[in-house]
Amino acid sequence: MNEGRGHKRFREVMRPAFDASVVAGSFLPDIAAIVAGALEAAAAAGGPVSGYGAMKRLTFEVIMNVMMGKAYPPAEVDRLHHLFNEFTAGMASFPQMDLPFLPYGKAMSARRQLLDIFDRDMAAARAAAAEGRPVAGQLGIMISALDEDGNTLMDDRAVKEILLGLLFAGHDTTSTSLTRLIATLHDHPEVTEKLRREQEVLVEKHGRGVSPGLMRDMVYADAVIRESMRLNPVTNELFRSAIRDFEMGGVRVPAGASISLPMATVTASDPRWAGKTGEMDPNVFNPERMLTPEGLKPGDQMPFGHGGRHCLGVHLAMAEMKAFLALMGQGYRIEADTNTEWQYGVGRVPKNGLPMVVTRL
Ligand code: HEM
Q1: pLDDT, tens digit, 9 for 90 and up, residues 209-227
Q2: Where does the chain bind heme (predicted)?
Q3: What residue spans define the domains of the chain?
């Protein structure tokens, strides 16, 4: 499904499940409940918890829920998350021998256990569909997708591989972004204060909690997220192959050449900010720049890529981050230990795990 027509078809099938209106209409209540649960759990701890760990757990629960169209009990979320972490920790380790005492063998065992759970849930979903009952989530879309001749488009193996791929694409990317957001807000209390004031106004209009209307009106929070991701994109580079010869900036690029687009550099040298000083210095965290006519121009969301491979989960990820800022702004204070190194993981992740103390306001 990664190349050419297969990839195009994959996007056609999956796009409806990621549409902004579907995220706002179908997924938002569960996302809000998961975010609220994570904030409450951190507050109930009464002391420091790992901010990065909490965000990984939160985004894992969201992506499982959205993919499979159902809520898993907390203990099962923990078990699935543990399996996924074990899989990702060892999958690239050497030697690549499937032996139970090697990290690679442990990763393969975790992968098999995850796929068994997908099998179990897929069988239940297919049985429900056969009885004419609706199957929610992306799983529902995949098992009911048909090819041009009206045959089932994806067999169980294809569905499982895509589910695993979505776990990769949609989990750590969002937790890294949320973790960085928490750290950035800790270091910019004046921005946190503005977010809180925005919530006060929006709660007057829409009521407490998270609703599609409130999310739509979170203009400042939206700018804060986009600015945080401009400075700290999860993916440093986008990769493409030239499909024909072309010339750019005096450099001739032949068809078939591999092209890397360094996102952070491109963003910093964006003519909208390049060479500016003071508040508009490209290296300064300044959400206000995203509210200027230049900042509001489409196309600045490069952290989610661009064009035919633009991130399918952009609305889902934005909904998770905005729901987090909404509920934080309405009821919690977060103190984080930002005195840490940011090391390579999925994007840059805090070496100290970003200990944070969450208190109810
Ligand atoms: C803050 C969180 C996220 C970031 C920063 C992010 C970033 C990206 C980037 C940079 C790409 C490559 C785009 C390109 O090459 O032009 C991508 C692709 C993709 N993302 Fe995300 N993503 C995030 C969240 C999600 C979520 C929640 C999902 C949902 C499952 C998701 C699903 C995908 C998929 C399926 C693709 C492949 C699209 C294709 O090849 O056609 N992403 N993402």
Answers
A1: 999 999 999 999 999 999 9
A2: 311
A3: 4-70+136-234+309-360
